[in-house]
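Per your request, structure below.
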């Protein structure tokens, strides 16, 4: 939970050792040889072996409890997080230091390698941004003109924009255009994909909401994948070319990202070296992955080395040494951050140790990349699991220790104990009036847990420090409590919440139901065109997501009815005369809305 959530010329070569070796090529045909030359091989600089080995065997949890945690191998942490494959690249002093891959493209399949493709999720956004920056430098587009100047196949509906304060490339790229917030969930491989115009209009077969300008442009920072789809349409209307070709010509080829691809769907020729995505429980994403026709927002396939080349070219631009990115455009990109965000990049660190960072995620994949533009140190990770973000954080931390970075380090704490009566005295609902947050604190499984409005549930561990201080081991989020009784305060994310009530969900109680009953409800249910509930099983409860909204846990109060703890809503599942689950009913705000089951 944060103020801003991110639910992104000349061929530039690389050291010859990073290109597929010629020793294999004498026995294969010319076409295969040409194909191999377009693939990355794993690479280690002559002096990098010790640093590489340190990272490989120095993986630690995000939170290290004194006397309890020991360093383990990359493969060990991959097993912990049920992540079949991890591909990485490390940058040192402005050069590729080493690249590596572990695991398999799928659990019973081919070994992962440095030419393995992964979905990069929202990292598609900064790649699109830098392509647009190049077009701006070339005089093809003006970041501050009304975006309607560049749109011919689609026009934004009237909203909070005005002639004097229009939607522009700049405010779309910086997530300040005021357009409909949120991301995209993609489409199963057996589902039809909408056109870009259908996506922004919310027309079938799109599963997205209609795009509107819901806030005055420039008024606030709010992540919007749809904003980048508008950019995608504008660039195609302006250049009269498909988006994947635009990106190949304006960014991927010039920056040396030779395997990166925006083609949608991914060409079948790429499938043999493509990592299949895996869900939280370790099961494969149906079909291997979901398609993302919202290419500028989430449609990039890449290798870790591709993204390292991208970062290195940005650094060359920052230093005025790039033939691809002008120094002025890179410095403009970083000049006016908003809440430590610059055109979607997160700026992590202080002084001369600021790392320009971006993360990405789609169903079954998590990715991250970071670079210190001053020192030329950075790293990239790509994973094929919904659990991959935690693994990626630990990889960045291992790199930080090996290369002596001041950021991305593990959090070291000492475990403490708290009496049960103290823990129970802290429960209740806390209101953060200024931020308009509500956070519930409950006592379950002999521990405190924080329940957020977006569905996140953090089991907290007491630690030494302040008298009643706690930490979430997976994210390192800290919470502490001050005061007593009616004056009890919760300190969280640097903000203060006051306890409003010490009673939570008093009228509803969870019941246990059979695993096969829970499994029978898993599937997709259409509430209206483009608005689909995605229901998954998680332990003894369900996880339910509507469209691109956050996923919420739903708990059984009977064999067919479930309730949410964070929002005042319930779900009832309906069966036909043969006992098959055919629909769900959402009970919320005094209304009952039925959603038909469309996928098991």
């Amino acid at each position: 939970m944060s103020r801003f959530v991110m639910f992104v010329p000349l061929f530039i070569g690389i050291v010859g050792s990073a290109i597929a070796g010629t020793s294999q090529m004498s026995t294969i045909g010319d076409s295969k040889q040409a194909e191999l030359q377009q693939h990355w091989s794993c690479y280690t600089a002559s002096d990098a072996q010790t640093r590489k080995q340190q990272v490989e065997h120095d993986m630690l949890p995000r939170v290290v409890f004194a006397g309890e945690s020991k360093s383990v191998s990359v493969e060990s942490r991959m097993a912990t997080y049920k992540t079949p494959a991890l591909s990485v690249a490390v940058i040192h002093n402005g050069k590729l230091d080493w690249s590596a891959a572990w695991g398999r493209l799928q659990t019973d399949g081919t070994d992962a390698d440095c030419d393995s493709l992964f979905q990069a999720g929202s990292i598609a956004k900064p790649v699109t941004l830098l392509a647009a920056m190049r077009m701006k430098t070339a005089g093809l587009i003006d970041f501050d003109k009304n975006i309607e100047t560049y749109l011919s196949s689609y026009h934004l509906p009237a909203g909070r924009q005005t002639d004097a304060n229009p939607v522009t490339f700049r405010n779309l790229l910086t997530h300040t255009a005021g357009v409909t917030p949120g991301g995209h969930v993609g489409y199963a491989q057996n589902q039809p994909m909408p056109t870009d115009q259908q996506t922004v209009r919310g027309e079938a077969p799109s599963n997205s909401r209609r795009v509107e300008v819901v806030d005055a442009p420039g008024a606030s920072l709010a992540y919007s994948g749809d904003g980048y789809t508008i950019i995608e349409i504008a660039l195609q209307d302006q250049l009269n070319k498909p988006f994947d070709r635009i990106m190949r010509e304006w960014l991927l080829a010039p920056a040396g990202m030779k395997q990166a691809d925006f083609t949608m769907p991914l060409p079948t020729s790429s499938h043999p070296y493509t990592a299949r995505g895996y869900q939280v429980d370790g099961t494969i994403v149906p079909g291997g992955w979901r398609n993302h026709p919202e290419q500028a927002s989430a449609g990039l396939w890449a290798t870790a080395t591709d993204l390292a080349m991208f970062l290195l070219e940005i650094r060359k631009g920052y230093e005025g040494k790039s033939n691809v990115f002008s120094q002025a455009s890179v410095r403009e990109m970083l000049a006016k951050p908003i809440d430590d965000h610059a055109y979607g990049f997160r700026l992590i660190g202080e002084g001369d140790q600021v790392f320009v960072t971006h993360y990405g995620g789609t169903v079954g994949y998590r990715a991250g990349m970071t670079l210190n533009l001053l020192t030329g140190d950075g790293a990239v990770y790509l994973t094929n699991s919904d659990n991959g973000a935690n693994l990626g954080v630990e990889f960045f931390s291992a790199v930080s220790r090996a290369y002596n970075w001041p950021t991305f380090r593990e959090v070291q704490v000492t475990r403490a104990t708290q009496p049960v009566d103290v823990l129970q005295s802290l429960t209740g609902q806390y209101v953060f009036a200024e931020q308009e947050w509500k956070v519930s604190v409950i006592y379950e499984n002999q521990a405190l847990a924080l329940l957020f409005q977006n569905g996140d549930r953090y089991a907290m561990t007491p630690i030494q420090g302040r008298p009643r201080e706690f930490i979430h081991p997976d994210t390192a989020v800290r919470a502490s409590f001050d005061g007593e009784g009616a004056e009890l305060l919760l300190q969280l994310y640097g903000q203060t919440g006051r306890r409003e009530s010490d009673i939570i969900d008093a009228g509803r109680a969870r019941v246990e139901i059979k695993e096969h009953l829970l499994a029978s409800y898993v599937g997709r249910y259409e509430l209206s065109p483009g608005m689909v509930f995605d229901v998954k099983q998680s332990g003894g409860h369900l996880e339910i997501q509507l469209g691109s909204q956050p996923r919420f846990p739903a708990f059984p109060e009977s064999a067919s009815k479930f309730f949410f703890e964070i929002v005042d809503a319930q779900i009832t599942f309906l069966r036909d005369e043969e006992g098959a689950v055919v629909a769900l009913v959402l009970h919320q705000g005094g209304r009952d809305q039925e959603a038909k089951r469309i996928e098991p």
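Residues 161 and 302 are 36 Å apart (CA to CA).

Regards,
D.
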